[in-house]
Amino acid sequence: MANPILREKLNSGKFFVVPGIQDMITAVIANKVGFDIVYGTGYWLTASAWGLPDAGIATYTEMRNRMETLARTSNAAVIADGDTGYGGLLNVHHTVKGYEASGVTAIQIEDQEFPKKCGHTPFKRLISTEDMVEKIQVAVDSRTSEDFVVIARTDARESEGLDGVLRRLEAYSKAGADVLFPEALHSEEEMRKACAVLDKPCMANMSNHGKTPVPPAEVLAEIGYAYAIYPSLTSLAACAAMEKVLRDLKDNGVGQPDGLFDFSEFCSLIGFEDVWAFEKKWGKAG
Hints:
Elements: H1 5-12, E1 16-21, H2 24-33, E2 37-40, H3 42-50, H4 60-73, E3 77-81, H5 89-101, E4 106-110, H6 129-142, E5 149-154, H7 157-174, E6 179-182, H8 188-197, E7 203-205, H9 217-223, E8 227-230, H10 233-252, H11 263-270, H12 272-282
Parallel strand pairs: 1-2, 1-8, 2-3, 3-4, 4-5, 5-6, 7-8
Helix pairs in contact: 5-6, 6-7
């Protein structure tokens, strides 16, 4: 069941930030910190589960399973990366139905050809505006709850420039998209123009070391975005930390470095206390 909190936040007009979640360890840490909306990132959920690039290799079934697991693990509403809808119009219908049944609150669909590419990598190819308009119309028609949010993303900046981005998103807005996603803009000037021209809430993708600047949240709010996702933030931070401790282990034999997360607390976060309570009630000694 879609969580109404996302629509409530969009209607409030107050800017908010949404962390990307690459695995269920990140999900329980986000629970601890207290985020009420999180982003199921296709790039990093694919990387963490299968060690594969975000290039349309993971299937709908695999990604639905990852999103369903995230929705179950997280206390927050989940915005889910739905790639291209995994095919044509019937695939989009099936994907929206499946994602909504899995417990996510929003789906993001992009206008690339299938299989897609990461928005901050080269060689992206787009479908026509008309074909994407139909995908958005099908997505909107396929949802069962008005709390379920449809996000339309365009990757047109690389091939059609900012004017192409705006033309496409205007068409996607008319098709019924709730949120507009101008991917991989190149400057704050472009970001400001998009937010000023478009008539629906716009989201920003703060992909660290990608094509788009990553200004502070207060600047994004002033630019006019409704919210920003940070899909790579936790993943790149974790990669840096893991490389450091692994190098210290390999080079210096350090197996108990300073700064580790408390193991007992993590056992609690992941649900071991419920297991121990069950064992205490039902376990048999010997």
